[in-house]
Amino acid sequence: MPLVEIRDVRKEFPARSRGGSPTVAVDGVDLDVEAGEIFGIVGYSGAGKSTLVRLVNALEPATSGSIRVDGTEIVGLGERSLQRVRRDIGMIFQQFNLMNSRTVYGNIAFPLQVAGVPKSEHRKRISELLHFVGLADKALAYPDQLSGGQKQRVGIARALATSPKLLLADEATSALDPETTQEVLALLKQVNTELGITIVLITHEMEVIKTIADKVAVMEDGKVIEQGPVFDLFSRPQHPATRRFVSTLVADQPPERALQVLRERHDGRFVTLAFRDPAVRQSQVFAELISRDVAFELVYGGIEDIQGETFGNLTLSLTGDPTQVEAALGAVRALVDVREVAA
Ligand SMILES: Nc1ncnc2c1ncn2[C@@H]1O[C@H](COP(=O)(O)OP(=O)(O)OP(=O)(O)O)[C@@H](O)[C@H]1O
């Protein structure tokens, strides 16, 4: 049984003005998040990502559909029962949402108070959490004395205080610089592997997905347009929006601007080879060209490492006898996908 099971979920917000039309923020979404995984949801601003996660912890009620969290149907559930479900769900935010008038200790104590954990148990639990997030010496600091990365660590400690099964992360690294982003992502990975907590994270950055997610769903206009294991989605994106996201990390064919310059420099036939199968070595492919006296230059592209598997697109300029070029490409097609680059 998935930890989170979403079926045909829809969320409609009423029109903001008289005569206006309602906004369908989430439109018929189906998703399964298995226990123990890191599930990424990626999409541009307005795609409906935040609304979807807010439905999962019932900060907003769904208009229709079904959402099961750890087996409990939460759509239509009463407030009292929802509070019990929410106790198993932690959440972290882009702007950290810490209480500035409370110390780090006080911020982490807050969910413990709400959950009715006796005060005598707070000190030990908070100390454990602060050690885990690497802020053992900051218990008495106030949020405005901390860096962004430290504030998010406090956010994570606070979200973990009541030992949730599920952690929802809403653009948790979007306000951080690239180096701090990597540190916070590493901490989230630790939350997942060492504490066994399932994580759903939403982001507009493929880098975040690539770094820690196991599975990913792409959202556009309230719908999930594509989902699957991260490697599959990166190496074989189907939908144009997914291709656009993937191209922010992995070069595909050269864009029009680059192509113009490349054509001025190279007069051969341009083809893009997609390397996806780990059993196929680049040297095998190049050997097919060399054996037929086809000269080649790598003009665009690169190879990426996604969770230990490599793939990428290399655009080559080929020169030689056209019949030999054709024959070589025939042999190359047996090894990798070959696409012509439009003249
Ligand atoms: N409380 C609300 N009332 C009315 N419309 C809303 C409300 N919350 C979100 N929306 C609308 O729902 C759509 C989806 O918004 P949502 O915030 O879920 O997208 P998102 O993908 O998370 O984007 P962002 O990263 O910019 O938050 C948008 O058109 C937004 O204007």
UniProtKB/TrEMBL annotation:
Residues 4-246 form the ABC transporter domain. GO terms for molecular function: ATP binding; ATP hydrolysis activity. Gene3D superfamilies: 3.30.70.260, P-loop containing nucleotide triphosphate hydrolases. Homodimer. Forms a membrane-associated complex with FtsX. Coiled coil: none annotated. Part of the ABC transporter FtsEX involved in cellular division. Has ATPase activity. CDD domains: ABC_MetN_methionine_transporter (cd03258). This is D-methionine transport system ATP-binding protein. Keywords: Amino-acid transport, ATP-binding, Cell membrane, Membrane, Nucleotide-binding, Translocase, Transport. Belongs to the ABC transporter superfamily. PROSITE patterns: ABC_TRANSPORTER_1, ABC_TRANSPORTER_2. GO terms for cellular component: plasma membrane. The keyword Glycosyltransferase does not apply. InterPro entries: AAA+_ATPase, ABC_transporter-like_ATP-bd, ABC_transporter-like_CS, ACT-like_dom_sf, MetN_ABC, MetN_ABC_transporter-like, NIL_domain, P-loop_NTPase. It comes from the Bacteria. GO terms for biological process: amino acid transport. It comes from Nocardioides lianchengensis.
